[in-house]
Amino acid sequence: MTNQDQQEQSANSPEESNEEVSAAGEQKLIEDRLAKAAQLRDKGFDPYPPRFDRTHTSAEATKLFEYVEVMASNGVGDDAEHPRTETVRIAGRVMARRGMGKAAFIDLKDGYGSIQAFARQNTMGDEAYEIVNLLDIGDIIGVEGSVIRTRRGEISVEAQQVTVLTKAIRPLPDKWHGLQDQEIRFRQRYLDLISNDKAMKNALLRSMVVQSMRSFMHDRGFIEVETPILVPVAAGAQATPFETHHNQLDRDLYLRIATELYLKKLIVGGIERVFEIGRLFRNEGLDHDHNPEFTTIESYQAYADYNDVMSMVENMVSYIAKETTGSMVLPAVEGVRPEIDLTPPWPRLDLRAEIKKQTGIDFVETRDVESLSAAMRERNIHVEAGSAWGRLLDKVISSEVEPNLVQPHFLVDYPVEMSPLAKRKPDSDEIVERFEGFVMGTELCNAFTELNDPVDQRDRFEQQEKQRLDFGDDEADRLDEDFLVAIEHGMPPTGGLGLGIDRLTMLIAGEESIREILLFPAMRNT
RNA sequence: GGGCCUUUAGCUCAGCGGUAGAGCAUCGGACUUUUAAUCCGCAGGUCGUGGGUUCGAUCCCCACAGGGCCCA
């Protein structure tokens, strides 16, 4: 139907014209609310006023009343039978409304909790009370009045005045069931935060994790820095980078996949304890514990080795758990995990011995792709065709060893092929001083005694570049000439660490999906 | 990349080869101490999108898209 047809038809059906046209569904709800905003304006009330002087949060108002009530019970105050506070001004979002004609109860929610407001026409006056009839669930309002306890025992602000601070023109999700639709929860996280306490709890936990991590590091004399996100070479880890381009410099750049190499340049520069908390970007798929952008802490400590880092990690993680939950023992979560005890020390497991124990494979005896592949096939471990040796062993570890590590453990001493930035053990050409921390069957951190021999480091990079060519391995690490020049000037012996903050928060929150922790996880186009 | 599940009113969910249901929210009415307030009444839907089968498809089949879970 063309526009003209539609116009002609509506002209022919006058009952459908103008304000008689009833908009469908969601649009109708929006129009109803816009109409109420217009009515507020007609009565001289700005539905979006610039300022409201709040004197108390919901929590403070509740606390104030409880204090007054205790004093009244001791005979202090004008009316010991009906204690009431001084006038307070609170503000928050209308979460529920129970109207009774000339009185109404409103559940208000602010950033600190909830409190009920109680509005009566005869206390407010007819004109002021009209605002109450124009309120919708979702509106943000201010309420002025003293705090009392209602007959049913609910601490409530008895409204002298109600002010609309922000008229909401879209409805909130179901007040009882909350927001269930996972897609909307992730795409419109603000609705999740409003409707579901758990979403807010996780968001606050994430902040507390980062805060306590920072204070742990600062207490130990670490300096926090920020290094480039746009980098000419995406090195320092084995991952595929995002590519971008700087127009004026006419130069291709990448989003960093690690902060490692820049931080080690700062170690060369003499900042002996340094860390960065920041976003990394890896161009890979999404699943319950991967997101293309995620946050890590990396730290580097001169004159330390991986044993020092190991004890720092177990101390840091248990400290953060204690600070954020009050205990180093995380409670069991039904259907997710048993109780997790993060109290140090965490068991150190020799990687070679552990693989041998779980699979019978000794990676020192199966030192090439052919023999390792054969040993894997014998044990029904999937062999990805065309994989480098290190990738195959990584598969053995992730499928046969990691799942058993539910309580915190360190796997210690990795083969050199998997670890191009780690220093060899003094007594071995094949094994490096590297460990990874595991909890709940997933990797939490990765750390090593940093390779500071510039000749060996160049050789390792070259082997990674060769692996990229020989095996078509896009994720092989990249040679970074600037970094090599830096350590050719001399990097002291150093212990380094990388730890995923989103995964650490998942662990503490008892969540199985990183999407419950990231406020705005990556989503497909709609 | 493969398999399974899922998409119905603003939200939470039923449903069925014969043309759409509930609760909450909205709208109208009653109600001055409620708290999932209560009571009465009304309205609200391209049943994810596009094809196919059929006299007839929201339902069966196929493809695609979004979301979830498992595997690779």
UniProtKB/TrEMBL annotation:
Its EC number is 6.1.1.6. Belongs to the class-II aminoacyl-tRNA synthetase family. The keyword Calcium does not apply. Mg(2+) 1 binds at E436, E443. Residues 1-29 are annotated as: Disordered. GO terms for molecular function: ATP binding; lysine-tRNA ligase activity; magnesium ion binding; tRNA binding. GO terms for cellular component: cytosol. Pfam families: tRNA-synt_2, tRNA_anti-codon. This is Lysine--tRNA ligase. It is an enzyme of class 6 (ligase). Keywords: Aminoacyl-tRNA synthetase, ATP-binding, Cytoplasm, Ligase, Magnesium, Metal-binding, Nucleotide-binding, Protein biosynthesis. The gene is lysS. It is found in: Cytoplasm.
